[in-house]
Every structure is written in structure tokens, then in C-alpha cells.
Design a protein that fits this description.
Elements (H helix, E strand, L loop, with lengths): L11 H18 L1 H9 L1 E3 L2 H4 L6 E2 L11 E3 H13 L3 E6 L3 E7 L4
Antiparallel strand pairs: 1-3, 2-3, 4-5
Length: 107
Amino acid sequence: MKVSETGKFLTKQQIVDTFKKIMNEAIIADPVAISALCEHRVECNDILADHPTIQVYQENPHNPEDIPVVGMIGILNGICEALTGKQIAGEFDENSGLIRFIDREDF
């Protein structure tokens, strides 16, 4: 588990808050780049699709022609969930697009 500057262990919520803080700083620094990264998905194999914490999207897993896809947030959430049991989510505005990250339970 990550240690803070004071040498103390971070709580699970502090780790989630750190994920959100860094992602929100990235959105402020370059909203176009971060939005594009968060929206981008790449095809992945079934082994990755079956990972217990990484989020992978597949429209119809029973259709062999429907290939699963994964994105940056799916990977980050896989790490975040493994460390804390929690995930983050992007909050979108219909005019502005991605505006910030929040706890997934607040979504």
C-alpha cells in the first residue's frame, strides 16, 4: 500500500481520493487530451476480459463476433478496486463532456 509523505499508510478512501485528485488535475491541465484518452477503447482478448477487477466492455459476450474492449479508466479502476474495493467514475456534462471524476458509488 502507498505511504504518504508523513510515512503513514493511506486509508482506502485516501487512495481513491488520490486517484480522483490526479485525474481531476489532468482534466484541468488538458481536458481535450484526457477526454480523448478516457473515451478511447482498444480490443482485448478474453483473458483480460475475464480479469476480476479490470473493467472491460462487451456488448454481447455470447456473440463470438463481439470483441471485448478496454480503456484507460477500466485499467485504472482495476488497480483502484484491487487496492481499495472501490472505483472512480467520470462525470459528464452534455455540453462540456467529461468534467470531473467522482467515487463510483456517487454516480
